[in-house]
Amino acid sequence: MPNSGSVRFTPAAGGRGTEVRVELEYTVPGRMFGAMVAKVFGENPQQQICDDLRRFKQVIETGEIARSDGSPQGTSVKQQAKQRPAQPLAMPQVG
Amino acid sequence: MKANCWIAPNNVAVEEVPDPQILNPRDAIVRITSSAICGSDLHLLQGYIPAMKKGDVLGHEFMGEIVELGKDVRDGLHIGDRVVIPFPIACGDCSSCQRGLYSICENSNPNAAIAELAMGHSPAGVFGYSHLMGGYAGGQAQYARVPFATSAP
Ligand SMILES: [Zn+2]
Ligand SMILES: [Zn+2]
Fold first, then answer.
1. How remote is the CA of residue A54 from the centroid of ligand 2, in Å?
2. Which ipTM value was assigned to this complex?
């Protein structure tokens, strides 16, 4: 997927931390249809960037990615669509 | 272990499920000695809270004894300590947690995006309280995994 972009860090107003702004320009293969397919399968770049930013904030602030029994992989729009039941995993999945 | 699982509206059952394990360095595993059935469990039971799945372990108010600790839990907590677990899962590090607003911790709900879609703002992760609150197994069970054990509010 051809793309270009920037990541900017600026101090947030009122001493409320740091604002991270990601700008990404990309061309989706298959245009409208491609974009639709991507969205259905959680491969939409917008969703992926939002997930990445959330996980980035978690790692920077807490040192780990929040994992639950329903979302053992942590924040991911893809996984939100197909949650496992909120009961412990037989084998810990890390990744 | 045995756990009380949500099956469908107005249907819960005690089932055999895997024992919880440490997934993150700040986790603790607690052997549960007492667990409450809360009035707000009725909303789950009766099917008023969306995003429940068959097999979800219920229970958000529980206490017990620490049996296992993640590798980054150093100060304050020890195996054998008797602890009370607050139901909001809170990282202790984000700006909300640092202002004492643990119920809107910005980092503990891995499903924050769907909660934002549904409610406009995501709450913290909560034990045994639907996938909108993170999909965490609850404490009406013999054991529970407690994330961010070092910063329980
Ligand atoms: Zn309650
Ligand atoms: Zn927090």
1. 13
2. 0.89
